[in-house]
Specification:
96 residues; alpha+beta; Gyrase A, domain 2; 4 strands
Length: 96
């Protein structure tokens, strides 16, 4: 599984590529973090105005929209993404 994180003018776009039967588990792990039930270095995922999820073939795109008075830290999000990937792979019994 590969990913990219891109800062957009009003949101952050996280794209996961080359998913093989991992979509549902990945979304579940992402939602755990949004509920405050993961070990991310910041609470950015807990304070979103909106989260849009798009699935296309073996790709998932998360578009994270923070409140107007908040900024999402890309470095912290990268650590969160690494945690979510590891949890997804553990949940599926895959080697990490």
């Amino acid at each position: 599984m590969k990913h990219s994180i891109e800062q957009q003018p009003d949101h952050v776009k996280i794209t996961f590529y080359e998913l093989t039967n991992q979509s549902d588990t990945l979304i579940k792990e992402q939602k755990k973090c949004m509920d405050g039930n993961c070990r991310c270095p910041s609470d950015d995922l807990e304070h979103l105005d909106d989260l849009q999820i798009k699935e296309e073939n073996s790709t998932i795109i998360f578009e994270l929209y923070p409140p107007a008075d908040r900024h999402l830290n890309i470095d912290n999000l990268e650590e969160c993404v690494q945690y979510i990937i590891a949890q997804t792979q553990r949940s599926m019994g895959l080697n990490i």
